[in-house]
Design brief:
By secondary structure, this protein is of the alpha/beta class. The protein contains 8 helices and 10 strands.
C-alpha cells in the first residue's frame, strides 16, 4: 500500500513508523510547511491518505483527497459539524472515506459497552450521568471527539426520565463533561453513573499514541481498494 501522511506531528510520526513496519510505502508527507503539495499530481500514486491535523484544516484536507480520487482515513476531531458534507461528496465522487473520533481498539470496545450500559440503566432514572476526559495540553478541541461520541451514544439510547439530563433534548452537551488538559496525557475517558447510594463507572486510559496510530493504519489497509463511507463499526 502506498500511503500519504497528512499531518506530521507526533501522531504522523507514529503512523509513519507503523506503516513502514507493516511493509507499506510512505510516498507523500504533508505538514504545515508544505500544505500546497496536497494536490492531484502528488496524490496520483497514493492508495490511501491518513489525515490527523487540526479542526481548522481537516475539512479542506479531506475534501482535496476526495476530489482527487484518493481514499482518505481521518481521525481529526472538533470539525465534524461538516462531516455530512464530505460524506455526500464521497458518494458523488464514488470515493472512499473512513472516519472515527478514536482509533483505539479499547476505546471502540468502550463505545459498545457504553451503549449497552445506557440501555440497561434506562430502567434506573435515579442515577446522574457525568463524564470526564483528560488529554495533553496540545489538544485543540474540548470536549474531545471521543467524549462527544460517548455522550451522543448515551442520548440516543435513553428515554427522557428525570435525573438523567437537564431536560428533554438530543444535545449531548447537556450531559456534564469535565474536560482537562494535563501534561502529555494521551487520552483518558470515563462515564460515571451516581446515585445517592452507589457509583458505577466505565473507564478507558490510553498509555501511548501507538494504539491510535495502529488503528488508523489498520483502517487504511481495510479501506484500500474500496468505495464508500466507513467507520470503526465496519472494521469490527
Amino acid at each position: 500500500m502506498k500511503a500519504a501522511i497528512i499531518g506530521y506531528g507526533k501522531m504522523g510520526h507514529e503512523i509513519e513508523k507503523i506503516l513502514i513496519a507493516r511493509g507499506h510505502e510512505v510516498t507523500l508527507i504533508i505538514d504545515i510547511d508544505n500544505a500546497a503539495d496536497l494536490n492531484a499530481e502528488n496524490l496520483a500514486n497514493v492508495d490511501v491518505a491518513i489525515e490527523f491535523t487540526t479542526p481548522t484544516t481537516a475539512y479542506n484536507n479531506i475534501r482535496t483527497c476526495l476530489e482527487c480520487g484518493t481514499a482518505v482515513v481521518s481521525g481529526t476531531t472538533g470539525w465534524t459539524d461538516r462531516l455530512a458534507e464530505l460524506q455526500e461528496l464521497c458518494r458523488e465522487k464514488g470515493g472512499a472515506m473512513f472516519y472515527a473520533s478514536n482509533y483505539s481498539l479499547g476505546v471502540n470496545l468502550m463505545f459498545r459497552l457504553n451503549r449497552e450500559l445506557a440501555r440497561l440503566m434506562n430502567q434506573f432514572p435515579g442515577y446522574e450521568i457525568t463524564m470526564s476526559e483528560t488529554h495533553h495540553t496540545e489538544k485543540k478541541d474540548s470536549p474531545s471527539g471521543t467524549a462527544v461520541t460517548l455522550a451522543e451514544d448515551i442520548i440516543s439510547r435513553v428515554e427522557r426520565k428525570s435525573g438523567w439530563i437537564n431536560e428533554p433534548t438530543d444535545n449531548p452537551a447537556l450531559i456534564s463533561i469535565e474536560s482537562l488538559r494535563i501534561g502529555k496525557t494521551p487520552g483518558d475517558h470515563s462515564v460515571t453513573y451516581t446515585s445517592e447510594d452507589d457509583v458505577l463507572e466505565i473507564r478507558h486510559s490510553i498509555k501511548n499514541r501507538r494504539t491510535l496510530a495502529q488503528g488508523a493504519v489498520v483502517a487504511a489497509e481495510f479501506l484500500c481498494g474500496k468505495q464508500g463511507i466507513y467507520t470503526m463499526e465496519d472494521l469490527f
